[in-house]
Design a protein that fits this description.
heterodimer, A: 305 residues, alpha/beta, eight-stranded parallel β-sheet, 8 strands, B: 205 residues, 5 helices
């Protein structure tokens, strides 16, 4: 008998939170979570095999175009989507806006995304996610951001990427940074772990947990810039356990077909033959943005660090 | 994570979507070998099979796309032990409501999807059972609710008045997630015992 059970004691989480909050996120693994802006898109996503939908008023590509302050969505729109599908419905709140989160919890949204895609409401504090019963997902660019969010109570982490660009380069950068920083912790002595914890501004037990387990204590998903089945499989091969696709599906030529293709690509992320098959004749992908042409103030990933 | 070395019984785990890795880890902790099932060829030579938790609609879609619906059905009906958790139980049930959806229909129960409510109502609850150790609990996550049980189905555990762990011949199905709970869950142990007994009898495919 080997002790290979994946769920261990996780610093800062009660045993019940580990199984019910993090356990919810475990059910999404190997799946695709799709951004949808109305019930019709939600149904298309569900039929294509999405394991959850993210309900929001505008996909990130349109938030970029629209400008101004991006806030949590109209409750009526979210409720419409909850009624339309049987899979989990997530929704976004502004970084630090705990009242928007209280509202989503009272609407029984299944998971709350404290998201850099919306305009931050608090530049000092992120939401104290421990006081909520609803699981939260938060973005990260590296191990420090990931562990700070987990310390605040996030039950799932997604690498940020650069949302609404259709360009996977930032998602890759963030996933590589996260995974290599986890590997760098291997074999460190207690004193070195303590120093690392101070540097990352999190409790030492959390750093020690990651050093020993060589993974994050919560599911690690990818987001921000995935536009093709190949992009999704790339993120899975780099270590993502599931993929969020925002603008990539409903800003493309044939959303239903592309959605099905990305779902299948995530299941078969290590099988190039299947990836070839699903990538045939998908129509126009969303038009991408070269990250280097984006002025600093339009880069979303720098929000909430 | 799949482990096929050694002579222990081999359990296939449907790996289209969901927490199949957690099921594999729980089974490996019982000394069983596991194999991820994504295509018909992965069904060869299994001593048992697991339909894990996840989203049943996602699994249904992928079963069709992968042309796995029929071959998996043949394996499920072959008499080998089957463990079905949460979404897996929905795939086996005779009747599915909220909304109604296609299923293998091999397990004479009616289930209501998300029958205990959305994620806010998820949690760990005490089970009442004559066959499981006292104080056994189950973690219910957007769990299906069993509202009717047909003839020949043994109810092994209840949450309040509701059946939540049922057995029908070689089919063992739970509304909750024994694979998520720390340590070795009695339901996983029961399934491992079924697998060993069956493998010793030499009835593997």
């Amino acid at each position: 008998m080997t002790d290979k059970h994946p769920i261990k004691k996780i610093p800062g989480f009660t045993a019940e939170e580990v199984v019910s909050k993090i356990g919810f996120c475990e059910q999404l693994k190997g799946g695709v979570i799709m951004d949808v802006v109305n019930p019709e898109q939600a149904r298309i996503a569900e039929e294509a095999g999405a394991c959850a939908v993210m309900a929001l008023e505008r996909v990130p590509a349109d938030i970029r175009k629209h400008g101004g302050v991006a806030r949590s969505s109209d409750p009526e729109m979210i409720i419409g989507i909850q009624k339309a599908v049987s899979i989990p419905v997530m929704a976004k709140v502004r970084i630090g806006h705990f009242v928007e989160a209280q509202m989503l919890e009272s609407m029984e949204v299944d998971c709350i995304d404290e998201s850099e895609v919306l305009t931050p409401a608090d530049e000092q504090f992120q939401i104290d996610k421990r006081v909520f019963k609803t699981p939260f997902v938060c973005g990260c660019r590296d191990l420090g951001e990931a562990l700070r969010r987990i310390h605040e109570g996030a039950a799932m982490i997604r690498t940020k990427g650069e949302a609404g660009t259709g360009n996977v380069v930032e998602a890759v950068r963030h996933m590589r940074a996260l995974m290599s920083q986890i590997r760098e912790l291997r074999g460190l002595e207690d004193k070195q772990l303590e120093k690392k914890a101070i540097e990352l501004r999190v409790p030492c037990e959390l750093v020690a947990w990651v050093a020993e387990s060589q993974k994050l204590p919560v599911p690690n998903f990818s987001a921000g810039g995935v536009a093709t089945p190949a992009d999704a499989a790339l993120m899975m091969q780099l270590g993502a356990e599931a993929v969020f696709v925002g603008s990539g599906i409903f800003k493309s030529g044939d959303p239903a077909k592309r959605a099905r293709a990305i779902v299948r690509a995530v299941t078969h992320f290590e099988d190039p033959k299947v990836l070839v098959e699903v990538s045939k004749g998908l129509g126009e992908p969303m038009v991408g943005i070269d990250i280097n042409t984006l002025p600093a103030q339009e880069r979303l990933a720098g929000r909430g660090i | 994570m799949a482990s096929e070395a050694g002579g222990a019984p081999l359990v296939g785990v449907l790996a289209l979507q969901g927490d199949f890795l957690d099921h594999e880890a729980a089974l490996q902790a019982q000394g069983l070998r596991t194999r991820q099932v994504r295509a018909a060829r992965d069904l060869q030579g299994l001593h048992a099979i697991v339909l894990p938790g996840g989203e049943s609609t996602t699994m249904l879609t992928l079963l069709d796309v992968e042309e796995l619906w029929q071959p998996l059905g043949d394996t499920l009906r072959s008499g080998i032990p089957v463990l079905a958790t949460c979404a897996g139980m929905i795939l086996l049930a005779q009747k599915v409501e909220n909304p109604s959806q296609r299923s293998y229909g091999m397990l004479p129960i009616t289930v209501v999807r998300n029958g205990y409510g959305r994620q806010l109502h998820s949690g760990t609850f005490r089970l009442e059972s004559d066959v499981l150790p006292k104080d056994t609990t189950g973690t219910f996550i957007r769990a299906p609710r069993i509202t009717a049980v047909g003839p020949g189905v043994d109810v092994l555990a209840r949450r309040g008045a509701d059946p939540v762990l049922v057995q029908h011949g070689p089919l063992l199905a739970a509304c909750f997630h024994p694979e998520l709970q720390p340590g070795s869950h009695p339901v996983v142990e029961r399934f491992a015992a079924m697998v060993r007994k069956h493998a010793v009898a030499g009835v593997g495919l």
